[in-house]
Amino acid sequence: MNDEKARPVLTGVRSAELYERACRVIPGGVSSPVRAFRAVGGTPLFIERGAGQYLYDVDGRRYLDLVNSWGALILGHAHPQVVEAMTQAVRNGTTFGAPCAGEVELAERIVASYPGLEQVRFVSSGTEAVMSAIRVARAVSGRDLIVKFSGCYHGHADHLLVAAGSGLATFGRPSSAGVPAAFVAATRVLPLDDEEALQTLFAADGERIAAVIIEPTPANHGLLLQRRVFLQTLKQVAARHGALLIFDEVISGFRLARGGVAELTGITPDMATFGKVIGGGMPVGAFGGSRRVMAHLAPDGDAYQAGTLSGNPVAMAAGLATLNLLAAGSIWQRLETLGAALEVELAPILAQAPFPVRLVRAGSLFWLSLHAGEAPRCAATLDKKSLQRFAALFHAMLARGVYLPPSAYEVCFLSSSFTAEDLRYFAAALKESLLVAAKAP
Questions:
Q1: 267-304 pLDDT, tens digit each
Q2: How buried is residue 370: exposed, middle or buried, by Cβ count under 10 Å (0-12/13-18/19+)?
Q3: Distance CA 250, CA 411 (A)
């Protein structure tokens, strides 16, 4: 590497062709908005394959992958044992619309791993998991109000697409077109890291609140590391008012530890939601709680939930193979070691960065925060200049063969495929790219 002003990536011919075709038949040319590169500019890459810690685009370029399918691929791309498990499952059929042994085995693994969990139900996405958990919580409590936190994302169910307004707690307002105000009228939004706001809301509406849901390690508006005392207060306040506490561990579950943030903090929620890692790269979600709570779910109870592809054998095989590999080895320790080593590599580089940038890390999750001062614990908006710098940083890293999430608010993920050499390469690329970004207009 060298210190030239910029080495822009020319959009590959094949990616450009595919994007042009995609825009004709797919809104925005993508199946999920952040993939369109609107936050960083340019044309999205179309990926042909992944192997270990690398992605390969359709034009033959290789990238060190810090996205890892947004955290789903804790073992890296196309892990041989996961691929073999899926291959064997496919030979027997891709979906049955009936129970299979794999879902029992995967459920047993999850229940045995997560504190306080006795039963889980499988779905096909994190959004479905959260939507269903909230329905069950309302059935358990007989109440309607839901509390969420600004900066936490829980999927795109209508009643959770809510933006926080001014003041300590606001009535929910839709943050997406197509969501009627009535759908979010029963949602309240609080700021993270604010016990006073929490106490004030519950003092006013506690008897009407069915559940409070939080990412215990928020990772959708940057990495907003929470104080244990705040999470403990949240549990105590919810319990005192008869509301259920739901941990959304779709990102953190089985990534930060076997028992997720619940294990790391010693705080056991009433319900939890999962996704990403438990699917081994396949579309899987799950939600669960005690038998008492889950007894409200159909067919035993009157809270309805169903899904044609829920618990399908291929997804169950991928998830089970992944969790078995995690359980058999010391992969969580390896990921922590990799994360700590990255912190050491980046410390002198970030200390001399030409603009504010800080590494925020939890295990194999990390975020390059462009906020001045201390890293935020609650949702904080970046200014226009910082967003421009990140866009320049993103493309400078891409030019050096490193694929970052295409948004300043998204977090990065390490996989167990990474090596010490990969970390050194990342650090060298970042050192150069920060200088390039500093010169951005």
A1: 999 999 999 999 999 999 999 999 999 999 999 999 99
A2: buried
A3: 14
Q: CA-CA distance, 302 to 19, in Å (whole number)? A: 45
Catalytic residue among 248, 270, 409, 422: 248
Say how far apart CA 288 and CA 270 lie, in whole Å. Answer: 9
Dihedral Cα 415, 416, 418, 424, nearest 10 deg: 90
Spatial distance between the Cα atoms of 134 and 111, rounded to a whole number of angstroms:
19
The CA distance from 425 to 192, in Å, is 35
Q: What does the chain come to in residues?
A: 441
Selecting among 63, 114, 153, 403, the annotated active-site residue is 153
Encode 91-112: b = buried (16+ Cβ within 10 Å), e = exposed.
Answer: eeeeeeeeebebbebbbebbee
Beta bridge partner(s), residue 64: 54, 402
Chain position carrying tokens 């609107």: 38
Question: Distance between CA 226 and CA 441 in Å, rounded?
Answer: 35
- Predicted pLDDT of residue 179: 77
**Number of CB atoms found within 10 A of residue 256's CB:** 24
**What share of the chain has pLDDT > 90, as a percent?**
87
pLDDT of residue 10: 52
And the tokens for 336?
A: 């922590």
CB atoms within 10 A of CB 248: 32
pLDDT at 170: 36
Asked if 248 is an active-site residue, the reply is yes
Segment 382-399, tens digit of pLDDT: 999 999 999 999 999 999
| 63 has catalytic annotation | no
- Exactly one of 148, 235, 276, 431 is catalytic; name it: 276
Task: Please indicate whether residue 276 is annotated as part of the active site.
Answer: yes
Would you call 127 helix, strand, or coil by DSSP?
helix
Q: What is the pLDDT of residue 2?
A: 43
